[in-house]
C-alpha cells in the first residue's frame, strides 16, 4: 500500500512540475508527459498518437509525435484545432520497452477523455510506465491570458 501511495505521489509531482512548461514557449492546449518508473527517469522517444472521435463513432487520427529527452510532447495541436470532443491518447509502450531490451505485458496504454466541454482548457496527460503496469492522471486547467 505504501508503494502505491509513493507511486501516485510521484505521478502527481510529475504533472505539477511539467505544468511549468518550457521557458519562453506558449502553452499548448494538449501536452503529454511520460515517466519510466523502472529507471526513475523521463521516458524518451515514446510514440504518441492522438485520435478524435468522429460523429460516426470512429476514431480519426488527430496528431502524432514522440516524447522528448524530458519525456514530454508539446505542440500536438493548437487552441483553434483542439475543439470540444472526445479524444484518445495512445502511448506505444511495447516499442518503448522492447527498445530497452524488456518484454512488456501491455501493447499500449491509452487515455480516452472529453475535452473542452466546459470551455477551452489546457490538458496535461501524464503516464507512469513499468513493463507490467501503468498509471495515468490528468491536469486540466483554464488557460491564462
Architecture blueprint of SSEs:
Blueprint: H1 2-18, E1 30-36, E2 41-42, E3 47-53, E4 59-66, E5 72-73, E6 85-91, H2 93-99, E7 109-115, E8 122-130, E9 133-141
Structural commentary:
The chain is an alpha+beta fold. It is 17% helix and 40% strand. It is built from two helices and nine strands. The strands form two sheets. Strands 1, 2, 5, 8 and 9 form a five-stranded mixed sheet that branches. The protein has a four-stranded antiparallel sheet with strand order 4-3-6-7. Strand 8 and strand 9 form a beta hairpin. It is globular. It starts with a helix and ends with a strand.
Essential attributes:
single chain; alpha+beta; four-stranded antiparallel β-sheet; 9 strands; 145 residues; five-stranded mixed β-sheet
Summarize the structure.
This protein is of the alpha+beta class and 145 residues long. It is built from two helices and nine strands. The chain is globular, with a radius of gyration of 15 Å.
Largest β-sheet summary: 5 strands, mixed
Provide the low-confidence segments as ranges: 4-25
Give the strand content: 35-45%
The overall pLDDT average reads 85
Helices and strands, in order, run as HEEEEEEHEEE
| Structural class by helix and strand composition | alpha+beta
- Specify the helix fraction band: 10-25%
Radius of gyration: 15 Å
What's the β-strand tally?
Answer: 9
Quick one: overall form?
Answer: globular
Q: Kindly report how far apart the N and C termini lie.
A: 41 Å
Number of helices: 2
Amino acid at each position: 500500500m505504501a508503494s502505491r501511495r509513493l507511486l501516485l505521489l510521484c505521478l502527481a509531482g510529475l504533472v505539477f512540475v511539467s505544468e511549468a512548461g518550457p521557458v519562453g514557449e506558449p502553452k499548448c492546449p494538449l501536452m503529454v508527459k511520460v515517466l519510466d518508473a523502472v529507471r526513475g527517469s523521463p521516458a524518451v522517444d515514446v510514440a504518441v498518437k492522438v485520435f478524435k472521435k468522429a460523429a460516426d463513432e470512429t476514431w480519426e487520427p488527430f496528431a502524432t509525435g514522440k516524447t522528448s529527452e524530458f519525456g514530454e510532447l508539446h505542440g500536438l495541436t493548437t487552441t483553434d484545432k483542439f475543439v470540444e470532443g472526445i479524444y484518445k491518447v495512445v502511448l506505444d509502450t511495447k516499442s518503448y520497452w522492447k527498445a530497452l531490451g524488456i518484454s512488456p505485458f501491455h501493447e499500449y496504454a491509452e487515455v480516452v477523455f472529453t475535452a473542452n466541454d466546459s470551455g477551452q482548457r489546457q490538458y496535461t496527460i501524464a503516464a507512469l510506465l513499468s513493463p507490467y503496469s501503468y498509471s495515468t492522471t490528468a491536469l486540466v486547467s483554464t488557460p491564462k491570458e
